[in-house]
Amino acid sequence: MVELIIDLWKGAVPLRQAFWWYAVAYGLVVNLMTSLVFLALLVNDASPISLIVAFLSPVPFNLFVVVAVWRSADHYRGPKKWADLARVGTVIWLVILTAA
């Protein structure tokens, strides 16, 4: 697991895998789960600090994935447009998931 994290951070994971699996699929799961926790805390009148922590908890993962995709795009050997689209798409996905 540590090796995978290091490979993602270095951009050593293929762009397709970094984008579709880690940014889109796992990002959706992480953000959905933390949103459910946030909503559960909100409904149960949790403290404001708990709400803030729950709301911001997926941000480190999301930022990590943006860096991973960005660096994987640097190593991509295919058409440059796909690397650029992956970068832009990941940033847009980060904004959407953070705002939701």
Number of strands: 0
Tell me the major beta sheet: none
The structural class is: mainly alpha
Taken together, the total number of domains comes to 1
Structural notes for this entry:
The chain is mainly α. The protein has one domain. It is 84% helix and 0% strand. It is built from five helices and no strands. It has helices at 2-10, 15-43, 48-56, 59-75, 80-99. The two termini are 29 Å apart.
What's the short version?
With 100 residues, this protein is mainly α. The protein contains 5 helices and no strands. The protein has helices at 2-10, 15-43, 48-56, 59-75, 80-99.
Which key phrases capture this entry?
0% strand, 5 helices, 100 residues, mainly alpha, single chain
